[in-house]
């Protein structure tokens, strides 16, 4: 994709750019996901991140960082293996920490639930749904860190 804009400046770090071949042969497409469906999933995940970020009152920079994490994650993993509604809250939780606007895990879980289930009341933190999210989200954040070593420096 970067090639269509001419050559990259020498100062650019190429780890941020993907070739057209890499984009066209990403894990979701290799897993058989239709390109239009993949685009729809990416848009849904980005919209969820925007909604969650606004409800958590984080900066647009933090939201954008989370969106970048999500897109880069799905360049190394498939939508068929990792659901966007699990990766998105983890990406926002991580981005908020990186951009020095940390939010409590409990708040991220409650906001994710509210965005994904607008008709349901906020879950009790001791409910089965919350316990599942509590146990899953930290592991997903760790997995994001492991899969995106060039993006997040510890």
UniProtKB/TrEMBL annotation:
PANTHER family: CYCLIN (PTHR10026). SUPFAM superfamilies: Cyclin-like. One of its GO terms (molecular function) is cyclin-dependent protein serine/threonine kinase regulator activity. This is Cyclin-T1-like. The keyword DNA damage does not apply. Keywords: Cyclin. GO terms for biological process: regulation of transcription by RNA polymerase II. InterPro entries: Cyclin-like_dom (IPR013763), Cyclin-like_sf (IPR036915), Cyclin/Ssn8 (IPR043198), Cyclin_N (IPR006671). Belongs to the cyclin family. It comes from the Eukaryota.
